[in-house]
Specification:
Radius of gyration: 18 Å
Strand content: 15-25%
Helix content: 40-55%
Strand order of the largest sheet: 1-11-10-9-8-5-4-3-2
Shape: globular
Number of helices: 11
Largest sheet: 9 strands, parallel
Order of helices and strands: HEEHEHHEHEEEHEHHEHEHEH
Length: 251
């Protein structure tokens, strides 16, 4: 089953978000059907903040190492493309496709001093141009377009999300990712609005997977939350070692 077909099943595709070789190997060992990089987790590994603080070449390096260690379908979070220039973004995607990735996440917000939405029409036009370049180069990749309307809490969030879904669908999006949507009624309304598979993300109040399946959600992501939890546990263990002056809490 190819990556597109994984988004067309009755059960949602649960993506294991990974950030390095060990997390990738664990995902494969546990039987996940596909993996996706977490840009925030990889940035943190390299000592950067999320929001394209790290360079594309650093992301490319990690993707190359991950790709070399797994046969699982790999999707890469490219944030907003690591450039403002459409040709550069398309070339970045082509480099990743040449490494063997099958999908990308690309988002409609940018971080300058703070994260802000990109103009919807401008972003949709850029998506269309990227798709055109990829087709001309015969590069097939599942384009999961992330809209940050809920993440940023914009006014009239449902209407703004629907507007952006319409524009991105016309531009050639293969899926829509709506991080920070967690209310059951909101999820249902967005799923019912579009023919494209809807991707939701791990949140404290996100409904469980069976409910998401019944709502028609087709993809579920973990984001950087498992990464953060892992290091929280690491900090607690190290603190135990300091306090107890013993390694017993590790074993």
């Amino acid at each position: 089953m190819n990556f597109t077909e994984l988004h067309q099943q009755n059960n949602p595709l649960l993506i294991a978000n990974v950030w390095d070789i060990p997390s990738t190997k664990i995902a494969e060992e546990l039987g996940f059907k596909a993996i996706g990089t977490s840009s925030a987790a990889i940035a943190s590994l390299f000592g950067y903040n999320d929001g394209e603080d790290m360079s594309f070449s650093e992301l490319e390096y990690m993707v190359k190492r991950i790709r070399a260690t797994t046969q699982l379908p790999l999707s890469v979070d490219i944030e907003s493309g690591y450039s403002d220039d459409t040709d550069t973004i398309a070339n970045n995607i082509i480099k990743l496709v040449n490494l063997g990735i099958v999908g990308i996440n690309i988002e409609d917000s940018k971080v300058n001093e703070k994260r802000e939405l990109i103009n919807a029409e401008k972003f949709a036009q850029q998506l269309l141009e990227i798709k055109t370049i990829l087709r001309a180069e015969n590069k097939n990749v599942f384009m999961n377009v992330r809209t940050d309307t809920f993440l940023l809490g914009v006014p009239n969030v449902i209407d703004e999300t629907k507007k952006r879904i319409d524009l991105y669908t016309k531009a050639g999006a293969d899926g829509i990712f709506v991080p920070c949507i967690e209310n059951l009624e909101d999820i249902q309304e967005i799923v019912n609005y579009t023919r494209l598979p809807i991707n939701v993300m791990c949140l404290p109040n996100l409904p469980d997977f069976e409910i998401l399946k019944n709502l028609g959600v087709k993809r579920i992501s973990m984001g950087n939350f498992l990464f953060d939890k892992m290091y929280q546990n690491f900090k607690e263990l190290e603190n135990d070692v300091l306090i107890n002056k013993s390694f017993k809490s590790i074993f």
